[in-house]
Specification:
heterodimer, A: 196 residues, eight-stranded antiparallel beta barrel, 3 helices, B: 343 residues, D-Maltodextrin-Binding Protein, domain 2, eleven-stranded mixed beta sheet, two-stranded parallel ribbon, signal (chain A)
């Protein structure tokens, strides 16, 4: 039943995702690289689908689903000066997130995805706006590691929570009452190798 | 410090009021009672000791939270049944003591510096909780300019510059021929370690003209009360002293003011916080509490107690009063509060 509700919007969103995609900026040196992997747990996905709510990602991001791990979406790093060990800087990611309410036939598309290390949130800019909205807050066990050989820094969060700003924005934009601040959505892994 | 706790059964009905009074109480130095063996007890950094005295007073969970100051009588017996240890003065000393003992003596170390992979003991978890910055301080109307570059600071603390008139890269400043009196906190200070790192020197490169005996963030020291003194200073701690009113007879700025580095004003005087420019500069630093990784991951009641205080959803990161305390003591709450880096 849930699949039927989102089948049509998903088909349309492939186009939206393609339009929203942005190419990494050209750099003279080796650009920053890495990825942001956001996971939505099976439980959260199920609760959303029951309400007719789903999400897809736009290129160059990609997504996959497993019955045990839920939905996993990968967004490539496109730039930034993130210093995870110093808890400073920010990283930007390609791709988009499209949140769909199949019942209301409404969608919200977030592009310009970013992670700011001081605020510690994943943000996105809603289509038609220039102001970022805080989407997800890393929580649970937060671990920061650095690969001494490659310089790659990794942040893992055993939990991500829906930011209050995202809950308010999505409920307003989609005319729903589904999104609750602080809801555990899934997990996060951010890997970032600085430009050199 | 935690105020003396009455017997819980006797005052069970009045605990709510009692807790409220405790929360409103002033933070004092060192525990006034010997903490129980199961309490969470810390030592180390001077920079965050005042904040943790306050947090210890405000935390109403059990086991209780205690914090020993960096200075005072020594040795100390941190908790019931603990070994007697020399009082750790500073981040590195606290970290060393944490690694050298078990939870029977110390549970955490306050640290104003990050982990030093390769030189810090292994098996430790640095748990981030706030942002601070380090600048330098001098007397308001002294001989120092109001701004110095990183190159100037390096020259001063290596004694390449010994007189103010050797500083020639500050627009509009003509220094006097007076001798610069440079000071650093003691070895083992996290503030010293960070400051040396950011100006690009090591302990071994500190010049012989530098006095290395002062306690950090204490402008009350008469040695510093000259027009030619210069000393690194925690910007957050200074804000806590000046704007938060968190001072004691020794823990106060005295005549010192925190000055600019590389033209960046360290304080947003309107909002009374570390300026955003300073917070994103190389002089910004992260503040940590350090625990043994094995303790953190053990899955027992002690691990639960540590996570209830220091974890990403714990007291220091999420409790409204605790976050207000962090701000009141001049530091910036960290978005990724509870982030862990292991050694």
């Amino acid at each position: 039943m849930q699949i039927k509700r989102i089948a049509v919007p998903v088909a349309a969103l492939a186009v939206i995702g393609a339009v929203a995609a942005s190419a990494p900026s050209a750099m003279a040196t080796t650009p920053a690289s890495g990825s942001l992997v956001l996971t939505a747990s099976t439980a959260y996905v199920k609760s959303a689908l029951i309400e007719g709510i789903g999400a897809v990602v736009g290129t160059p991001a990609s997504a996959s689903y497993s019955t045990t791990g839920g939905v996993s979406a990968t967004f490539p790093v496109t730039g930034g000066d993130l210093n995870l060990n110093g808890y400073s800087g920010a990283a930007q990611f390609g791709g988009s997130i499209v949140v769909i309410d199949a019942r209301q036939h409404r969608t919200v598309t977030f592009t310009q995805l970013a992670f700011d290390d001081l605020s510690g949130t994943v943000t996105g800019v809603p289509q038609g706006s220039t102001t970022p909205v805080a989407l997800l807050d890393p929580s649970g066990d937060l671990n920061v590691t650095t690969d001494a050989t490659t310089g790659a820094q990794t942040l893992t969060a055993s939990e991500t929570d829906l930011d209050p700003a995202a809950a308010t924005y999505l409920d307003h934009a989609l005319c729903t009452a589904f999104f609750k601040a602080g809801t555990a959505v899934g997990a996060l892994t951010l890997t970032f190798t600085p430009a050199s | 410090m935690r105020t003396l706790r009455p017997s819980k059964p006797l005052l069970a009905a009045a605990l709510g009021c009692a807790a409220a009074l405790l929360a409103a109480g002033p933070a004092l130095a060192d525990p006034s009672v010997t903490p129980a063996a199961t309490d969470i007890v810390g030592v180390g950094s001077d920079t965050t000791q005042a904040l943790f005295n306050q947090l210890s007073t405000d935390y109403t969970g059990t086991p209780h939270l205690y914090s020993w100051d960096a200075t005072g009588t020594s040795p100390i017996t941190p908790k019931t049944g603990a070994s007697s240890i020399a009082r750790p003065n500073g981040s590195s000393a606290g970290i060393t003591a944490l690694a050298a003992n078990t939870s029977a003596t110390i549970d955490y170390a306050r640290s104003s510096r990050g982990p030093k992979i390769g030189s810090d003991p292994t098996g430790l978890s640095f748990i981030a909780f706030a942002k601070d910055a380090v600048s330098w301080a001098s007397e308001k109307s002294g001989d120092a300019p109001t701004n110095l570059t990183t190159a100037d600071l390096k020259s001063i603390f290596t004694c390449t510059y010994t007189k103010w008139n050797q500083i020639t890269d500050i627009s509009g400043y003509t220094g006097s021929a007076n001798t610069i009196q440079a000071f650093l906190p003691q070895l083992g200070s996290g503030t010293r370690s960070f400051f040396e790192s950011v100006i690009g020197i090591t302990d071994a490169q500190v010049g012989s003209c530098v006095n290395q005996t002062v306690e950090e963030n204490e402008g009350t020291n008469t040695l510093l009360q000259t027009k030619d003194s210069i000393v690194p200073y925690s910007v957050g701690h200074y804000i806590g002293q000046v704007y938060g009113g968190h001072t004691t007879t020794t823990d106060a700025p005295g005549p010192l003011v925190v000055q600019e580095t590389n033209g960046i004003a360290p304080i947003d005087t309107t909002n009374k916080v570390i300026s955003s420019a300073e917070a994103s500069s190389p002089y910004a630093r992260t503040l940590y509490n350090v625990v043994r990784t094995a303790d953190w991951n053990k899955g027992d009641a002690h691990a639960t107690a540590l996570k209830a205080i220091f974890g990403s959803t714990g007291y220091v990161c999420k409790n409204t009063k605790a976050v207000a305390d962090v701000k009141s003591y001049g530091f910036l709450p960290l978005g990724l509060c509870g982030g862990i880096t292991t050694t």
